[in-house]
Amino acid sequence: MAGQLISIALTVEQHDAGDYFWVLLESFDNSMEFEPLMEAATGFATYVDALQAGYVVLRGLSDDLKVGPREEDEDPVAMTEESGVGDAD
């Protein structure tokens, strides 16, 4: 089963030099406060170029665009093996 939908926002900032940078922001626990998740390493000449590049990165965060980016569920079998529960030794 897929985990909870991750709340991610895409924005574009213009730095002092005039270049545009995409920034992905993430919100936790259904809060309206967002924290930087990722940002462009280099600037773009136009707003739309930065926006499109950020959108490509945002799309890449989701395995299935029909359901969006999700938190990873922990594998109950792996958790059991790591904790030693169920070992017969």
Describe the structure.
- A hairpin with a 5-residue loop joins strand 1 (7-14) and strand 2 (20-27).
- This protein is an alpha+beta fold.
- A 3-stranded antiparallel β-sheet has the order 1-2-3.
- The protein has 2 helices and 3 strands.
- It has one domain.
- The longest helix has 14 residues, at 47-60.
- The chain is globular and about 40 Å long.
List keywords for this structure.
globular; 3-stranded antiparallel β-sheet; alpha+beta
> Which stretches are poorly predicted, pLDDT < 50 over at least 5 residues?
none
Largest sheet: 3 strands, antiparallel
DSSP helical segment count? 2
N-to-C SSE string, H for helix and E for strand: EEEHH
Q: What's the number of structural domains?
A: 1
First and last CA, distance? 31 Å
Topology of this protein?
Blueprint: E1 7-14, E2 20-27, E3 34-39, H1 47-60, H2 76-83
Antiparallel strand pairs: 1-2, 2-3
